[in-house]
Amino acid sequence: MTEDNYTVERRLMVDRQIAARGVSDPRVLAAMKKVPRHRFIPSHLWDQAYGDYPLPIGEDQTISQPYIVALMTELLELKETDRVLEIGTGSGYQAAILAELAAQVYTIDRVETLLARAEQLLAALGYTNIHTRVGDGTLGWPEEMPYEAIIVTAGTPQVPRPLTEQLALGGRLVVPVGDTWSQTLTCVRKTKDGLKFEYHGGCRFVRLIGKYGWEEGAWT
Ligand code: SAH
After folding, report:
1. Spans of all domains in the chain
2. For residue 94, which atom of ligand 1 is closest to its CA?
3. What is the pTM assigned to this prediction?
4. What is the mean pLDDT of the segment spanning 15-38?
């Protein structure tokens, strides 16, 4: 397939899978049309890059279904001046979408090989506003706090407390909370009266493994 074919596939992906299901923020739709999703997955799967499902990216991890990426991004309500923290860099695809919409993106993964690959690709694609770190993202990235938006792209039994602490007043945290098999997309807003929770349906993510997520090796 040529780059032109991929551009057409991306437009169809946005129209049929994302806008058709109710994601309407024009900036989010434009970012989903722009970022070359196929580059973030292994090349033998490029012909499936714009399908309506998650795909493997190595190390037992997955790149999320396009609709879920778009929905979570819309829930973050990003402004051009916002600073965003992502937990779970994976392929780097979600980070690229965030980088199209916000000023600075800070992203953490616990798996060094995935992070190294993502860093290389994001640099090759010309992103200069994405900052990466290896480690346990359930602890957040306190040196750069506060964040107007935080996104967790792995499933957790509870909202990691360091992340709500590192959220700016008025900030939004989007995180899949539940058991290993299914989670509820949860949006936490920090207001002057405390944390407000909203729920946005079911989803299924790989596990967030760390101090405030799942224990390594746990199987619930
Ligand atoms: N956002 C990614 C998909 C993430 S898959 C994308 O767009 O491709 C989930 C990722 O979370 C995996 O890469 C996994 O290594 C990472 N992860 C799991 N627990 C973590 C933790 N405590 N801190 C940081 N990353 C973690």
Report:
1. 53-203
2. 7
3. 0.97
4. 98
